[in-house]
Amino acid sequence: MKKRFILSMVAGLLAGTAGAQQPDIFDSARDNIVFVDLERVFNEYYKTQLAKGKIELQKKDVEVEKQGMVDEMTGINEEVDTLKKEVRDISLAEEVRDSKRLLYEERLLDLRAKQKEIEEFQTLRGKQIQLQVTRMSQKIMEEIRLTIVEYAKGNSLLAVIDSSKRQSVIGVFIYTHSDVDITEDILNVLNSKRPDSLDDDGLFDGEKELAPRQDNPEGK
Questions:
Q1: β-pair type (33-36, 159-162)
Q2: What are 5-60's pLDDT values in tens digits?
Q3: I need a surface site. Which of 1, 48, 49, 102 has the fewest CB within 10 A?
Q4: What total number of domains does the chain contain?
Q5: Does residue 24 lie within any of the structural domains?
């Protein structure tokens, strides 16, 4: 009975009509069911700002390293352009042009290798930074969640609900008191229908079964 009473308060608050239709419920729940803008908490938490600052510094370091590689590529590209012109210069002796041609082909390969190196560098560093962002964000969000739970318990709250637009990080209900948890009740209802024999009894009719693996005795 107590669970149903508390759940009706939550439903009324979420529907936005509890104040008009159930004033007594609203008054009793007002101080026990609260909302928090989790996105704002995350963004304005000082550790989030520190984490963002650290990531920005790493991005700048990556850009500096990348720029050094780009400068090298630019130098090789200029050399390739010069050699290309010399290969086509008919005023030069054939032997000179042949030597230039060999050098041109060699430096052209160096240019392509440098381009590939830069692309792989960007991809690798990008993945590394994104992985670090994810780890840091998860660590901060877990700390925020634990803080909210501790606050809720200390203030005898029944539930803390995320009111931000991004409700998928932790979930809409960040904290709920055990009195409003109906998990066990739902499981009891569902499992009360459990048959004595645990065959599917046509439950999965229409589902395709996996074809058995065909053994090849000849090893082909």
A1: parallel
A2: 444 555 554 454 444 444 454 455 556 888 888 888 888 899 998 999 999 999 99
A3: 1
A4: 1
A5: no
